[in-house]
């Protein structure tokens, strides 16, 4: 039995009664969570832990904020910094935790911030506003940068723009913190690519598309003129029977990269897939309803035996026990109340 202790950080929208980032203690063995406290912050719509495990970074109305992660998983505020634009929606760092990358859905902007040795956020080193037009009114007729992640070789920054159906690829200068557009991955029209993630060995990229409801798998190599993405697989996030209106939301891998979760708002379902680490391909285990409305985020418990869905419109967290052999998951306990949840991050305590 795993004797390690874990917490879950849940970011919420604070335009109602919610107060910020909620910290939950995880009972991994029994698949339970218990609310411990809330850390006040305005609209922490996305949170990210540094690679060294010492710091947590959060989107906020004022830009981005940094926290020190204490041994028990509590958060100690450090500083905040402006991104000189509208509120962001996604955060990531380079492997050495020297830079913080911010995606701007509202203004279509990629922002690069320098990180100091003590984990605090420093000055902005670059900003790029995306240009172009999509084809669907309101949702994706103009740039909406929804995700920024650096490639495994740490040489390129991938900015996923669901508004113009592209992943823009920037050469990243580790000395200056500047980015320069060198290529782009063009996606199917009106597919609305949402999140890109890379396998730990750096061989594969996974791209979930919001409006077409599928995950695209690519092989990834660093070529002499830039990164090379070759299509491997496209697999639906939905069953053959599903809601007429659905939007794929989350793309989350288990800690051991054996499984992947996706969620579908509108259809109000979560899909569980297994990962073939040799070919990179995904195989559906099950796609089932989550007893809530608009599952905007989801994650695995560290043992992979339980999953949790954050249901944005029904203001709930629902937990399920997964039976991989039989291909289903079942509700595990009553839904928990949490107002307008938007993101979740599971972290081991005492890592630092």
Q: What is the topology?
A:
Layout: E1 6-12, E2 20-27, E3 32-40, E4 47-49, E5 55-60, E6 63-69, E7 75-81, E8 90-93, E9 99-104, E10 109-115, E11 121-129, E12 145-150, E13 156-161, E14 166-172, E15 179-186, E16 193-198, E17 204-209, E18 214-223, E19 226-236, E20 247-253, E21 259-265, E22 269-275, E23 282-289, E24 295-300, E25 306-311, E26 316-323, E27 328-331, E28 336-337, E29 341-348
Antiparallel strand pairs: 1-2, 1-29, 2-3, 4-5, 5-6, 6-7, 8-9, 9-10, 10-11, 12-13, 13-14, 14-15, 16-17, 17-18, 18-19, 20-21, 21-22, 22-23, 24-25, 25-26, 26-27, 26-28
Label this structure with key terms.
single chain; about 350 residues; mainly beta; Methylamine Dehydrogenase, Chain H; four-stranded antiparallel beta sheet
Q: In summary, what is this structure?
A:
By secondary structure, the chain is mostly beta strands.
Q: Do you know the CATH topology of the domain at 1-40 and 252-352?
A: Methylamine Dehydrogenase, Chain H
**CATH homologous superfamily identity of the domain at 1-40 and 252-352:** YVTN repeat-like/Quinoprotein amine dehydrogenase
Series of secondary-structure elements, N-terminal to C-terminal: EEEEEEEEEEEEEEEEEEEEEEEEEEEEE
- CATH class category label of the domain at 1-40 and 252-352: Mainly Beta
Shape: globular
Low-confidence stretches: none
The percentage of residues in β strands lies in over 45%
Query: How many helices does DSSP assign?
Result: 0
